[in-house]
Amino acid sequence: MKLSKFPYLVQKEILDNMKYSDLFLLSFVSKNIKKVIKLSQTTRFRNIDRIVFDMKNTEHPMISIVFGSSVYFIIISSTISEKLKNDYFQLNVSGKLINFEYVSWHCPALAFDPCDRESVFTSIYNYLLDFFGDTIEYEWITTDHRFFVPRVRNLSLILEFWTTGTDEEIMERFENIISLSPIMKHVKTSNWRPAGTINPESKYYQAESISICQNNLTIPINLGRFQGRQAFLRCRTCRISDLSEFLKRWKSGEGFQRLEYAKIIINHPDVPLNGILNEIGVNYIDATKTPPTHTLPKVYFEYDCQPNTDPIISQTYVVRETDNRVASISIQGKALSFGVWNETEEEFLAMVD
Amino acid sequence: MSSTEQGTSSAAPAEPTTAPESAAAPEVPESFYYVHGKDKVVHKVSAGALQHSALIHGMISNLGYTEEQAKANPFPFENIDGDILQMVVDWCNQHKGKPTPPEDTNLPKQKEKLFDLVLAVNYLEIKELLTYCCKQVAMMVKGKSPEEIREIWMIPTDAEDEAAEKEAKKRAGKEAAGETAAAAGDAK
Fold first, then answer.
1. Which end of chain B is more exposed for a tag (fewer CB within 10 A), N or C?
2. How many Cβ atoms are within 10 Å of A105's Cβ, its own excluded?
3. How far is A253 from A248, CA to CA, in rounded Å?
4. B131, A13: Cβ pair inside 8 Å?
């Protein structure tokens, strides 16, 4: 059976029915077939939301394609075993010879030498960028453990901090990694303990989205000089004055101009969140009326997590002095939710039923 | 010319025992057409079954043949092998007037037969069957290495492609030179 004997539209239909991982392998057969794939699959490739390099597991990084909430693995990988299986094959990926093994996962399994990790995954990244195109978002998910981000264009970084150690070591490491990072899409710090406060001018605050879970006041609840769009904070303790400072700075237009959403959960039983509303001065919608619901797609969400922010339906709102934009504020239990609207106060009130 | 009379029994309208009350008008008898492939074996197929083929449907829609005329003028598909045309006719009969299932497991497993079926179905413009066939062709290389894929689909190497391209250019050059010489000869 000669594929090239089929008319182009038939070739396209065949390729349309192939999985991404099979198209990836097919692209190595010849330059011509790679051209046919790229030409015939332009629309399909353009519809990909993002290509994710999940490098969190340093021994088994995985590369997948994401469409909405569906995930298709295109390459799985493992550190090279002492003896490669007999049926491994080598592919020239962007000028680098890389070993692949057959596995029963229905996608190629890349075998790499840990010493060679950086060049292997940089080559894979360059190949996929050329193959799938640069209109797709490429996400690189990594942790501070064996931190490595290729020096390439077009990469959105998702960074998770796991490090444990002394305060000084952790903070130094944190700042060091942050300074080496390209533009960060999302930074997550889980169960963070350092007692020292992060520098308000840290590049950390340039991330589009941050998720913080901390025991101390390492990242203050006033969010320092955060310039991003979404913030998710869960802390065991905080200074209530920091929280009101955060809201006042938004209200005055002094800071957080790009902020769209913030959710702050304070697990301490003695933090009176309700008092904050009187302190900053909020507006109320008539209790008989129904306020509009605020929700947004998250800048970043992990597998199995909600793609949108939790809806805010609140009678309470604040207005930014500089441009009259509105933010809904909701306090429920230990959680304060803050959602910024694109609308001015007049436009916002027109949406109230 | 022999005739296999495919589809006659399944396609023939059943003899109604009693006319339903609501169906006052008599049923229009189904019309049949005839097709043959390279082997000249004629297949009788109902118009309903042939609706799957956009090509044949377009050809017959305005013909208004009588049974005799249709029999006397079978559609010749000389580019399609007899056994492949038989497969196509069988498929059209099986799926006449029925919604097509999401998968079809009755397609040939042999590479060459499937290849010929794809070409025939593409020519006859039978969209659903083409989709099934293409899925089957795609499945042939699922989980295969590039070298295995090359073997299955007979994809030339880059070197072979380059050599073929060079050859084609050379041939085109020669043809162009020949045409110029002929034109010059004509001018004289």
1. C
2. 13
3. 8
4. yes
N residues, chain A: 353
Interface predicted TM-score (ipTM):
0.81
CB contact under 8 A, A2 and B157: no
Structural contact between residues A211 and A187, judged by C-beta atoms closer than 8 angstroms: yes
Positive/negative CA dihedral, A273, A276, A282, A284:
positive
**Concatenated DSSP letters for B87-141?**
HHHHHHHHTTTSPPPS----S--SHHHHHHHHHHHHHHT-HHHHHHHHHHHHHTT
Contacts of residue B131 in chain A, CB cutoff 8 Å?
13, 17
Highest mean pLDDT among A102-106, A193-197, A334-338, B20-24: A334-338
Chain A residues close to B149, C-beta within 8 Å? 25-26, 29
Integer Cα distance of A308 and A299 in angstroms: 9
**Chain A residue with the nearest C-alpha to that of B139:** A18
- The answer to whether residue A252 scores a pLDDT higher than 70 is yes
Whether the CB-CB separation of A251 and A320 falls below 8 Å is answered with yes
B150 with A30: Cβ contact below 8 A: yes
Asked whether residue B171 carries a pLDDT value surpassing 50, the answer given is yes
Residues 117-146 of B with CB under 8 A from A: 118-119, 122, 130-131, 134-135, 137-146
DSSP letter, residue B84: H
With CB atoms and an 8 Å threshold, state whether B115 touches A1: yes
Distance from C-alpha of A191 to C-alpha of A176, rounded to nearest angstrom: 20
Are A1 and B155 an interchain contact pair (Cβ–Cβ within 8 Å)?
A: no
Nearest partner of A53 among A37, A67, A73, A70, judged by Cα: A73
Q: What distance in Å separates the CA atoms of residue A346 and residue A280, rounded to the nearest whole number?
A: 21
**Percent of all residues in chain A with a pLDDT value above 70, rounded to a whole number:** 97
CB A285 within 8 A of CB A352: yes
Contact assignment for A89 to B146 by CB distance below 8 Å: yes
CB < 8 Å to B84, chain A: none
- Chain A residues at the B interface, defined by Cβ less than 8 Å, are 1-7, 9-10, 13-19, 22, 25-26, 28-33, 89, 91, 100, 102, 106
Please state the three-class secondary structure of chain A as a single string: CCHHHCCHHHHHHHHHCCCHHHHHHHCCCCHHHHHHHHHHCHHHHHCCCEEEEECCCCCCCEEEEEECCEEEEEEEEEECCCCCCCCCEEEEECCEEEEEECCCCCCCEEEECHHHHHHHHHHHHHHHHHHHCCCCEEEEEEECCCCCCCCCCCEEEEEEECCCCCHHHHHHHHHHHHHHCCCEEEEEEEEECCCCCCCCCCHHHHCCEEEEEECCCCCCCCCCCCCCCEEEEEECCCCHHHHHHHHHHHHHCCCCCCCCEEEEEECCCCCCCCHHHHHHCCEECCCCCCCCCECCECCCCCCCCCCECCCECCCEEEECCCCCEEEEEEEECCEEEEEEEEEEHHHHHHCCC
Task: State both tokens at B167.
Answer: 């050859």
Report whether pLDDT(A304) > 80: no
